[in-house]
Give the backbone structure.
Amino acid sequence: MILCISHSNDYYTIDIVIKRLKELGKEVYRFNSDDFSDKLNFDYSSNSEGISVAIKTADFAFSSQDVEAVWYRKLWGIALPEELDASFHNIYTQEYWTMRNLFFESLKNVPWMNPIKEDHEIGENKLEQLRLASESGLKTPQSLFTNDSSKVKDFFYSVCNGNMIAKLHGSLSRSMSGDTPFFPTTLIKEADLDHLDTLCYCPMIFQRNIEKEYELRIIYVDGSFFTGKINAQKSEKGKTDWRIANDVSLTWESYVLPANICDALTIMMKKMKLFFGAIDMIREKDGSYIFLEVNPQGEWGMIQRDLGYPIGETIAEKLVARIK
């Protein structure tokens, strides 16, 4: 059986992967991570043969020994019962979170896409991403992550030559279309340097602003690449971040990455121990490719939908191929 870990509001992409897994003859169970709660029953047992975890829901029952491989798409917080008194919320979340993690740990000897530990470590450390990208032969933007306004001012003048952007390390929300609330990558002007008093409450990443020709969303699936190109340079709003370009009509275009960039990205992903990632890059006006970041749980539905790429099918096929 293939276990697909997601959440109760997921749609489209997970359906594509599950459909292909079933076509490949695999039994599939969709495990909504937010429902690991009083909505199911579980028990853990340990003996000379190892640890086994049994899960029983209203319509399905299985054990960790039934699982051949795991597609780790998303992990959401555990839903609280409406009738639960607020004084019990912390202990409820704590214990169910622990039990869920132990369940995942019982599956550590089967193939995962991606392994949960590496997925979280890379996704939560963009500076390590930049280091590994540079180490793998990719160009990266000069960057500063700080809550010190004096460091930002010095970086603005001495490194960025007055051309700097700011962005959050994490995200406020996740969306396939970018139409949910978020803090966009923002161009910082000299006048903004006098208004950095609140930086101590929200550390940010500052980078040299890159004069881009266009932007790329690259979906990496265990050695395969699916790339979409988007050009928002005609948008006054979207020049810095294409997701807020609502003043022009944008469309994804198919794109073929140069072989040397694919090779460098493959090296990087192997260093990160990731089998999947949504990679953002910029192509500069001089033809250079600049790595920005990789999201191990990044969205790819818009790329498959608009360009017809078989991303979900490839995820299923690559995962099944890794089963011994």
